[in-house]
Amino acid sequence: MRTLHQWLVSAAIGAALWAAQGAAQAISAGSESDCARKATALIVALANGDKSASTADFDPTMKAALSARQLAAVWAATVGGNGALAKIDQPITTAAGAGSPELAIVPMHFALANLDAVISCDASARIAGLHFVPASMPTATATATPTTTEAGFTTEADPVRSGAIELGATFYRPPSVSGRFPAVVLVGGSGPLDRDGSLGANKPLRDLATGLARKGIAVLTYDKRTYAFPGKPVANIDDEMVDDAVAAINNLTAREQVDSARVFVLGHSFGGTLAPRIAQRSGKVAGLILLAPALESLESAIIRQLHWLADRDGKIDDDEQTALTAIEAQAQRLAELKSGALVDGALPLGIPASYWKSLWDYDPIAVARGVDRPILALFAGRDYQVLAEATRQQLQTGLADGPPLRSRVYPLLGHTFMPMSEPPDPAMLLAPAHLSQTVIDDVANWILDPAAR
User: Fold this and answer.
1) Is the pLDDT of residue 12 over 60?
2) Listed residue (266, 256, 252) closest to 171, CA to CA
3) Under a CB-based contact definition with an 8 Å cutoff, are residues 252 and 435 in contact?
4) Domains of the chain as residue ranges with CATH
5) Is 449 exposed, middle or buried (0-12, 13-18, 19+ CB in 10 A)?
6) pLDDT tens, 123-173?
7) What is the distance between the alpha carbons of residues 384 and 157, in angstroms, rounded to a whole number?
């Protein structure tokens, strides 16, 4: 469901960790907890090139998902895109709640940018998740963004009010033409994403927004609540993603420049999975664009991806097998919970039962059939997180007599629709690149040409 496009562990694991993080309690600075100390030690080890020390405090799932060699490659790509690490600040931590992990956020100052290392710890203070994000702000980041003009479009702040919170957002206005613009809301994948979908130096959502705006399509991008307000609870998929996307659609349809009959939702990864629910809840969407939507169950994705990551070098060592055995035991408890049994012991990745149940209650294909709006589904052939052909076939079969569906696979691209090696290398997701222009062209043509839908 989620992505190494958000977390550095794997697609499935990333979603889960941030869902669990949303249940954390109040934020405090200057904590000397074991989690805070281990988080700082991890970053220091990476900066010093000490591979063994960097993964010494990983829990079994992290050890299976991310080897010391892979983590070193991720760090090298991060430094390559942001310059040398100049200093780190004292961690900010969240107190663990019932069934929720503790988080330590380590501010990192590179030569060209400031990033936060968001590190999740389990009940034994072992590192259970790792994510590098743009430096966070205490409030929504784009509220004060001035109007700016770039080649082919203008941007302006358009904060999204969703319930009791306000999310920073940017409206991309195309060059002036007669009539109103078609428009699209961009919904990113899982994890604490900013409005650009930043992953290291890469900004796939900004690439999409600027590319579409230059073709005459208005775009709204917004900071996810898990990025803007990391301490707020996230109990289910609506809390995490759906409510805010519906609010963003309302922003677009209320704009005088926007043709409210031509407003679309575009979701990437888990955002694509939830796009049918967003459209259903909104009732204002003319069509759905799904980029690498995950249709595989989260529990299946966790097991599949961990096996794939562990076996990338052609063998599964004792530590990796121990980690796989541990996550499979948690998956068994999950199966018991799904059947209605009371479960003792940890669920996979510490995700609360309420979140698992909201996933199980949602069938994206069934909801898409009920929404009955045209769908464009695009997949990446070198995506190990969402298996392109299998997912495409599942979608085609499920919608065979449903709404119009057009789909395409791009053989040389990875999960972020940027170039990817063969076999896929998770660290390459951080290699500086841009989202494929062919993908932007295909999305724009589908939106602008009714015959394409």
Assistant:
1) no
2) 252
3) no
4) 11-134 (3.10.450.590), 148-296+358-452 (3.40.50.1820)
5) exposed
6) 788 888 888 877 754 333 333 345 666 678 899 999 999 999 999 999 999
7) 36
